[in-house]
Write a structure and sequence with these properties.
Znf_FYVE_PHD, two-stranded antiparallel ribbon, about 45% helix
């Protein structure tokens, strides 16, 4: 068991050597970092000198820099637009007039009367439509709806037409004058 322990401690010793070597390389890295920082300070001095030359011309700045200039048009060129189409339909002219002027008022009245004029040759007088319960007396022509309340009406036995009881002879079986002639 002691040999194993001794070998383990020797590997531990080798690990610490590696650690010291790593620390040494770390120390060398920090030296490089300090050297880089001083070159950075020198670069900033160069940059200040370059900014004065920027006022003289931007070409000297581009020649001195190591970053290539990026132009988006080189990566993806702008698309070419097709020629514009001409308008097929001309715009409607707008006519202005003084609306309080007598000829303008007369024109407006004529235009309104044309809009409200009845179509299909009718004169604008509408016939009274008969409702389903409106019946004319076969004798005198008076409508049932305009008769006096409680006035009695009788029905023709043959044509189912109606008449006032006062206009007829008043018998139980009423036959109108049209059906009586037949």
């Amino acid at each position: 068991g002691s040999t194993t322990l001794h070998q383990g401690s020797s590997s531990l010793h080798q690990g610490s050597t590696t650690l010291h070597q790593g620390s040494s390389s770390l120390h060398q890295g920090s030296t490089t970092l300090h050297q880089g920082s001083s070159s950075l300070q020198q670069g900033s001095t160069t940059l200040h000198q370059g900014s004065s030359s920027l006022h003289q011309g931007s070409s000297s700045l581009h020649q001195g820099s190591s970053v290539p200039e990026f132009i988006p048009a080189l990566v993806r060129p702008f698309p070419k637009a097709p020629p514009r189409k001409e308008v097929a339909k001309p715009r409607k002219k707008i006519i202005s007039a003084i609306l309080t002027d007598t000829p303008a008022v007369a024109e407006e009245e004529v235009r309104k009367s044309k809009k409200t004029a009845p179509k299909n040759g009718s004169l604008g007088v509408k016939k009274r439509s008969k409702s389903s319960n409106s019946v004319d007396c076969l004798v005198c022509g008076e409508e049932f709806t305009s008769s006096a309340p409680g006035e009695k009406w009788v029905k023709c036995v043959f044509c189912d037409g109606w008449s006032h009881e006062l206009c007829t002879e008043g018998n139980g079986h009423y036959v109108c004058h049209v059906c009586d002639e037949e």
